[in-house]
Design a protein that fits this description.
The chain is an all-alpha fold. It has one domain. It has three helices and no strands. Helix 2 crosses helix 3. The longest helix is centred in the N-terminal third of the chain and has 34 residues. The radius of gyration is 17 Å and the shape is flat. The model has no long low-confidence stretch (mean pLDDT 90).
Length: 79
């Protein structure tokens, strides 16, 4: 598999692909751990966690939405 990636993208490209994959995994784990900080019911946390695992792009959408929500809260606190 590594040989195929290296043949397809070259040395620099394969480093960027590995960095992108690593970043996406870290963000996915951050989204899963972030959902457990909210005061949702246990059933809703379980449902959202299962959704994150079965449909990983949803975790990135949720994380972006949460980051925007926190930005708005911080912006209102600053004013």
């Amino acid at each position: 598999m590594l040989q195929t990636i290296h043949d397809q993208f070259g040395t620099v490209g394969s480093i960027f692909v590995a960095l992108l994959a690593f970043t996406l995994v870290i963000l996915w784990i951050a989204a899963i751990s972030g959902i457990h900080e909210y005061p949702y019911s246990d059933k809703r946390k379980l449902f959202i966690t299962a959704l994150f695992i079965l449909f990983p792009p949803y975790a990135f959408f949720w994380l972006a939405k949460d980051m925007y929500r926190q930005y708005k809260i911080l912006k209102l606190d600053k004013d």
